[in-house]
Structures
1.
Amino acid sequence: MMQLEERLRADIVEVGRRVHDRGFVASNDGNISVRLDGDRLLTTPTGVSKGFMTPDMMVTTDLTGRKLTGDREPSSEILMHLAVYEHRPEVTAVVHAHPPTATGFAVAGIPLDRAVLAEVVTTLGSIPIADYGTPSTAELADAVRQHIRAHDGLLLANHGALTVAQGLFPAYYKMETVEHFARISLAARQLGGERLLSREEVNRLQDLRDRYGIAAPAPLCPTDQSDNVGVDCQTLDAPAQMGSKLVEPDQAEISKAGEVPEPRIQARRFGELGPNEEVRLTYRELVALLEDAVKQLR
């Protein structure tokens, strides 16, 4: 156990150096923790730059946040970490940082929940925004609790990002993925907008998780349950890529009273529609088409 703790102390120092070198934190920002055993945590100290830590600076606490060992005080945001361990017993590491682009999305109130990159869909799914809570308070921990059961990565409104995993370096790599995804999303929007993967493709990517041994916290919500509150699944913006064709009723559908039923809507893939057939679009699809048309005129 002592050898394990010594290794984890050194690993936290290394992860701290990486988040600092990559510009994911500034000054004394950010915090890292790992589960030592069933009832002890090893966490970064408060008031120290993550790029200049040493193993002896780390602090151990119990699962209430009470300090057990260490010359310094534990991270001031330990409550947020405790909320994760409380609701995700399989999680053994938490990384909190302020990666600039991802934090920009958090400040703008824009979740990273569009099906754009296959790798992100497979490994992280959607990355929602937890409501704002004052740092170092129970408010922030409560905001994290609302999402952490179904997500390994969160944006924290007006604050930063949080990633969790079964291992310290996997938790750090997920932070890299969150920031990488945010940068690509920002670039795509500046270039005119993302082209989303279809719901069908998203389902295929989710099915690959077992094949590659990817442990995901929750599946995607079924389309008819995506707005349910409290459901332990993930909402991901992935269009069905289906058009809707108006089909006129045939003679058999006309009643004896001479009443003609309304044209029924039949779902069809866009590629299957004829050139003169009517198509109905969602508001989002219509806006995207208009934006593309305007760009072509420039």
2.
Amino acid sequence: MKIGFRPFGEADFARLRDWIARPHWQEWWGDPDEQVEVIRADLREPGFAAFIFTLDGRDAGYIQSWQPNSAWEIPIDAPPEAARGIDLSIAEAADLGQGVGRRVIAAYVACLAAEGIRRVLIDPHPDNTRARRAYAAAGFVPAAEGMREDGPYVLMVRDLEEKVE
């Protein structure tokens, strides 16, 4: 499986809105229209990046990263400029449980490492066991638990001092 990343653009918002409305996204995402507007605003923020990830050339999901800041109430040992938070969602329910998430995360983390990033954070909901398994398989370890406006999270961390595969 060949994994690629293309920058998220204006033409991708309609597709993303459709994906967010799907049942397997709705477990963890909010209202599709509101979420699209949040991402639209985030794209204007320094340190935020969004991509459509592809599998063998087909659009297969969404991945984003951002530079953590003091608004995060989480432990960050790496300086913020050397850390990134990430999120991803897989477009098709049929791709869930196939190792896609783990492989996409590994490929994206390798890109971040090549840019000099040393710590990657991800913060799934505690009940999102499928995502937590994928993140653990990609080398992330639980580091903290917390609560924010949209609910609880488990902070998972991967330090990139070691070789990224």
